[in-house]
Design goal:
Structural class: mainly beta
Number of helices: 0
Shape: globular
Helix content: under 10%
Radius of gyration: 13 Å
Order of helices and strands: EEEEEEEEEEE
Amino acid sequence: QVQLVESGGGLVQPGGSLRLSCKASVSIFNFDEMAWSRQTPGKERDVIAQITSGGTPAYWDSSVKGRFTISRDITKNTIYLQMNSLKPEDTAVYYCAVLTGGDSWDYWGQGTQVTVSS
């Protein structure tokens, strides 16, 4: 069983930055791809960024392209989301997810709240 634990969320002012972390309980080389997604109340959870286990970014949502960066550290089994130039509309619960070869995300973290407000 894979466990994913997110951290790094919080309250930040518009224009500020946060870095989210997602630590996996196993080597990230067990995963084909890893992703960050977010969800606001009443809406579906949307993937906003994906990266391969080899470190190649695979997808950016247009709403975050140029502001957010996804990366991974294989020595720490951790996936990161660097978020810059944050906007109030980025407020959401952020989740990491991993894909191990199927057609859908196999494991999800518990989520971390990000609130962008002055």
